[in-house]
Write a structure and sequence with these properties.
A five-stranded antiparallel sheet has the order 9-10-19-14-15, with no helix packed on it. It has a four-stranded antiparallel sheet with strand order 1-8-3-6, with no helix packed on it. A four-stranded antiparallel sheet has the order 2-7-4-5, with no helix packed on it. With 244 residues, the protein is mainly beta. Helices cover 0% and strands 39% of the residues. The N and C termini lie far apart (52 Å). It is elongated. It contains no helices and 19 strands. The protein binds calcium ion. Calcium ion (CA) binds next to loops. Its main location: membrane.
């Protein structure tokens, strides 16, 4: 358990606290908030403003790693997962107005090595696509590997079409696999052989993922394995068919 100082009573003013949770090698941390009540920032424009009291969660060392979120008010933060094996919390309070603070539980789990979409760990509503073939039997959620009933199919065979996965958290992505099949109706083979990978932190501005020193656009064939353990600081991934 992790709790704010004095919990369940009100936390003191003028605090700068750090908490660090470290997992053994090949393990990950999941942090689940049970209660959350920090001084609210009524003028908050976006998530993460929080001028008075705040809790920051970092995927790694504080200030030096990707910031997962900055939280205040009474809304319980979402479940948080580390991808670095280290999770840090910085708790700051100012000189006035104290609330009950927070309590959170953490679990150390084995790093998931396979099967995000296939295992259902990524839920249906996290998978969307540019278009879907006309009769709703070829939906984005059917893009999972080894899906036994059809597969996602866009309305056109074009490189404008994409499938998009909202990962919700910072994730270490170790590979992407594609799959195809022979159509029962036409007897033709339909396989994704190459694609372009785009990434985004906000779902609006997309950047083509490139690797290697010369920043060449990647063309991946059939089964793709990205370099060892690539550290992704993006929370969205979009794939589309890529025609050179
Ligand atoms: Ca305060």
């Amino acid at each position: 358990m992790i709790e704010s100082p004095g919990f369940p009573d009100k936390y003191p003013h003028n605090l700068e606290c750090s908490y660090m949770i470290m997992a053994p090698p090949h393990m990950d941390i999941t942090l689940t908030f049970l209660t959350f009540d920090l001084e609210n920032d009524p003028l908050m424009v976006g998530e993460g403003d929080c001028k008075y009291d705040w809790l920051e969660v970092w995927d790694g060392l504080p200030q030096a790693s990707p910031l997962i979120g900055r939280y205040c008010g009474t809304k319980i933060p979402p479940e948080i997962q580390s991808s670095s094996g280290l999770l840090s919390l910085s708790f700051h309070t100012d000189m006035a107005v104290a609330k009950d603070g927070f309590s959170a539980r953490y679990n150390i789990t084995h790093k998931e090595v396979t099967g995000c979409m296939e295992s259902g760990k990524i839920s249906d509503d996290q998978i969307t696509a540019s278009t879907t073939f006309y009769d709703n039997r070829w939906l984005p959620r059917q893009a999972r590997l080894n899906n036994d009933d059809n597969a996602w199919t866009p309305s056109e065979d074009s490189n404008k079409e994409f499938i998009q996965v909202d990962l919700h958290f910072l994730k270490v992505l170790t590979g992407i696999a594609t799959q195809g099949a022979i159509s029962k109706e036409t007897q033709k083979s339909y396989y994704v052989t190459t694609f372009k990978l785009e990434v985004s932190t906000n779902g609006e501005d997309w950047m083509v993922y490139r690797h290697g020193k010369n920043h060449k656009v990647c063309l991946y064939y059939a089964h793709l394995h990205l370099a060892n353990k690539l550290y992704w600081t993006w929370t969205w991934v979009r794939c589309s068919k890529y025609n050179d």
